[in-house]
Amino acid sequence: MIRLGRSALAVLIAWGLTLACAPAGSAQQVDGYARSSSGTRTLTLGSGTVIKMLLDASNLGSGEVEVAEITFAVGQSATAGHHHGAMEIFYVIEGVLGHVVNGVEHRLEPGMVGVVRPEDEIIHRVLSDGPVKAVVLWVPGGEGDRIAPADRWTRIGARLSGSPSRVASGSETQNDEEQAVIEAAQAMFDAMQALDPVAFRASMVPEGFLMAVGLETMRRTTRDDFAARIADQSRPMIERMWDPEVRIDGPVATLWAPYDFYSALEFSHCGTDAFQLAKTPDGWKVVLVSYTVQMPPACNTHADGPPSLSR
């Protein structure tokens, strides 16, 4: 295995793009690509692994390479190997990954790179006490659709079964801001599902907190306390919102949406989320989430039905 400094990640991606485009002239140059992006789609597998596709044909404009962020849940220890239809290049950011290639285990620590060719059999194991987060390149692209069909993926920034209300209509900038607010709220849910306390803290301002609101009681939890709770979980915390309503006034935004909540595949409760967000130099961040809790059978749930964690 190869160890690289974290600053070498950009070099690794450039290497992947170079591999994808060789030999020179064999790939059509396409200018229809996104100059910046929050990613394109997410997928949760039955093992609890969460894949966030960062770069694919939809925002690159061509399919020579795909780049994803992948989070392996604590305790993952697959016993059956699998193959990919592309070269797979891992760069570990957090945690320790057991990278078993053709029966030989390699220990990948943060800053290390692992490579798998299509003919290799691969097994992933989490060797650390926390989840493993890595950036993965697939050359050529198309591996996302080989892992799971398109309808199993959740598009990032999707309007979630409804269009948010707008402060002003007919403004593309306003629409972009609304999408950014929705994505900021979704980032919190993504971190919960991935059991990633670092990403959860990053989705909120340091002073942020959550407030469970009942008819007679209220319970306040700070950002850091909730992140610690996430770190203690072993099952994905799946919270889904739909029909979000967004209001924006300069650097302040609100988002109101119904939600349902699952612990892995076990339905827990539902309610309404009321987000307060602030626009910071790093983009929109959650300041406060106040929420109600309703228990079955007095629950509305997502129109898509229960979440699917099976591959």
State the main characteristics.
8-stranded antiparallel beta sheet; 18 strands; Nuclear Transport Factor 2, Chain: A; 2 domains; 6 helices; Jelly Rolls; alpha+beta; globular; 311 residues
Structure description:
The structure is a single chain. Helices cover 19% and strands 38% of the residues. With 311 residues, it is α+β, with helices and mostly antiparallel strands. It folds into 2 domains: 154 residues, Jelly Rolls (Sandwich), CATH 2.60.120; 120 residues, Nuclear Transport Factor 2, Chain: A (Roll), CATH 3.10.450. The strands form 3 sheets. Strands 1-8-5-10-4-3-2-11 form an 8-stranded antiparallel β-sheet. Strands 12, 13, 14, 15, 16, 17 and 18 form a 7-stranded mixed β-sheet that branches. About 9% of the residues have low confidence.
Topology diagram in text:
Layout: E1 2-3, H1 9-21, E2 41-44, E3 50-55, H2 57-60, E4 66-72, E5 87-94, E6 97-101, E7 104-108, E8 112-116, E9 122-126, E10 132-139, H3 143-147, E11 154-155, H4 172-193, H5 197-202, E12 204-213, E13 218-222, H6 223-231, E14 237-241, E15 245-249, E16 252-263, E17 266-280, E18 283-291
Parallel strand pairs: 12-18
Antiparallel strand pairs: 1-8, 2-3, 2-11, 3-4, 4-10, 5-8, 5-10, 6-7, 6-9, 12-13, 14-16, 15-16, 16-17, 17-18
